[in-house]
Amino acid sequence: MGTFGVEQASLPKPNYEYINDGEDVGRAVGDILKHNIIEVDTETTGFDPYTKKIVLAQIGIPGKSYVFDVRNDTERSSVHIDQLEPVLNNKNILKILQNAVFDMKMLKVQAGYYLENIYDTMLVEQLFNLGRIGRGAKLSDIVLKYLGIVLPKEPATTFKDYNQEYKPFQLEYAANDVSILTLIRDLQLPMIASEGFENVCRLEFEFTKPMCEMELNGITIDKDKWHIMMDDIELNRASELAFIQKLLTDSCGKNVLFGVPVVNLDSPKQLLKALKGYGLSNLDSTGVDALKKYKDVPVINSLLKFRKLNKLISTYGESLLDKIHPITGRLHTRFRQMIQTGRMSSSAPNL
Questions:
Q1: CATH of residue 302
Q2: CB atoms within 10 A of CB 312
Q3: 205 with 97: CB under 8 angstroms?
Q4: Could you report the per-residue pLDDT of 75-106, keeping only the tens digit for each?
Q5: Residue 251 reports pLDDT greater than 70
Q6: First CA to last CA distance, the chain
Q7: Residues 136 and 32 in one domain
Q8: How far is 37 from 35, CA to CA, in rounded Å?
Q9: pTM of this structure
Q10: For helices 298-316 and 223-251, what crossing angle results, to 10°?
Q11: How far, in Å, CA of 118 to CA of 211, rounded?
């Protein structure tokens, strides 16, 4: 039952085969190889390809989903991810995925190769949404848009336990992720053609591989030199802070308690009051745009510098070094190929 008591459509029970016996893989792979377009997805114990593992590899063909349990190092399965290479590493088969970069990175680290010849439903949707605010490209967003169906979110977080025995609801969830991608692609293709996006889509699909490389390779950082740079910035910040407090204290003695300045620069109310006491009676805000109007005033110029240095320390200080990966010794950011303005973005950390 949906919001306000309105019935929400859900996906029908998928037709799938769960395979955890390595001897059954050859038959399934033979069946899959009869098709030149397949759907691919993985379920994993987490998002980090270096510390988390693929537990299920799903491959969809018309009318059926194969769910391969690839935990061959447990008593749950004797299927090895390498047994799927004739399909996944086959350049002649088009592979439809949602957020292909994630699955490609996991496969590269654990199986040793990238998926090629892909179609990414998420990238296509992001392309459609450029310049439009509030439109999502997650699988649940796309399925709701094209099929009017609400996907359950809860099962997605239930694969963290590597040794668990999977329940039917988990296998159905996994199977459904590769039972609808071809249908979504079929509904996207006319829009791609009508907008003349064929070449753009091809370019974005081809770029997924180098983007995976950038994310997996990460970025080196010299921690010793970084500490020297940050110590320098800390000294500059302290100098600017002392200068600001002195100017504000000289203009308004009541801002001193037992010889210690008590103007909290992080408090817009206190700062605005102190700046008005300094003589900037027309100032109505401590926001950057308001302060820039008075950037030739010494206290304002120093305050803008202080905020910039503060931002550098909070964003790129020890918190950045904490994100160095324990296995690779590098910083690994997450890139997004397209945001609303059409450019790339970087997060966790923002580089």
A1: 1.20.1060
A2: 16
A3: no
A4: 999 999 999 999 999 999 999 999 999 999 99
A5: no
A6: 43
A7: yes
A8: 6
A9: 0.85
A10: 150
A11: 14
